[in-house]
Amino acid sequence: MARQPPRNRKPGLVVIGGTRAQRALGAVWLVGAGPGDPDLLTFRAFNALRAADVVVHDGLVSEEILDLAPSRARRINVAKRKSRHTLPQDDINQLLVALALDGLTVVRLKGGDPFLFGRGGEELAACREAGVECHVVPGVTAALAASANAGAPLTHRGSAQAVTFVTGHAAHGEPDLDWTALARPNQTVVVYMGVSTAGLIAERLMAAGRAGSTLALIVENVSRADERRVLTTLAGLAEAAQGVKGPALLMVGEAMAMAQESSAPLRQGESEVSEWLPVMAGTSGVTE
């Protein structure tokens, strides 16, 4: 069993008018909660969560994982959605520091992995600047869970010699990506936060030379009970992404030929791909 996070007992904040002259500094743990399934939580993440005085969590962290924290632990939801943030990132940074300076063990519980499009680097920098002890616990990022559940490897000796993780979301305008590099064949491109820009991403990749027939997999609600997978092509990506409501990944590349779709009903525009799915990669059907 992995060790439990130690409590930091170094002398710290002087409390004026309090019952104690000094209060021990706390610590911040940046913990990757994985994509949602509690079974994908690491032992170290579990132990950190069990030792928490306060849990500052993303909106995508499942209730099953949040319930692993002690009942005494305070929960603070700092959910982010497109164009709608409960707290701006700078305020989250200040909150983590303030809680730790108050002597608390703070778990910043983040979906996936803290350092993969999770802004963990910004929070770590804020803690370092304030002199707050900060630990990072890696988590299973959504791409790994999506790949495993769909049976579609991110790399494959015959069809994907590289994999690249990119974001489809930019603060202002379209994402600033090297489309020429991403358009090269025999590689997998995984796009986080790319559903709303799926049409633009497909357009840019095809304009840079990636074939419109290149397979693309959309995985919605990765690792959860309502996970849904849709296999399409780069040319059909925009249409297939319409109606996706939950958090989703876009995975583009030749290795997606090994993917299995989930058994949910097809949406408009998916029937053409489904007709030839059974003959790809030696599969006998499109359901698990």
Automatic annotation (TrEMBL):
Pfam families: TP_methylase (PF00590). It comes from Caulobacter segnis (strain ATCC 21756 / DSM 7131 / JCM 7823 / NBRC 15250 / LMG 17158 / TK0059). Its EC number is 2.1.1.107. Pathway: Porphyrin-containing compound metabolism; siroheme biosynthesis; precorrin-2 from uroporphyrinogen III: step 1/1. Belongs to the precorrin methyltransferase family. This is uroporphyrinogen-III C-methyltransferase. Keywords: Methyltransferase, Porphyrin biosynthesis, S-adenosyl-L-methionine, Transferase. The keyword Manganese does not apply. Residues 28-237 form the Tetrapyrrole methylase domain. It comes from the Bacteria. InterPro entries: 4pyrrol_Mease (IPR000878), 4pyrrol_Methylase_sf (IPR035996), 4pyrrole_Mease_sub1 (IPR014777), 4pyrrole_Mease_sub2 (IPR014776), CobA/CysG_C (IPR006366), Siro_Cobalamin_biosynth (IPR050161). Coiled coil: none annotated. One of its GO terms (biological process) is methylation. One of its GO terms (molecular function) is uroporphyrin-III C-methyltransferase activity.
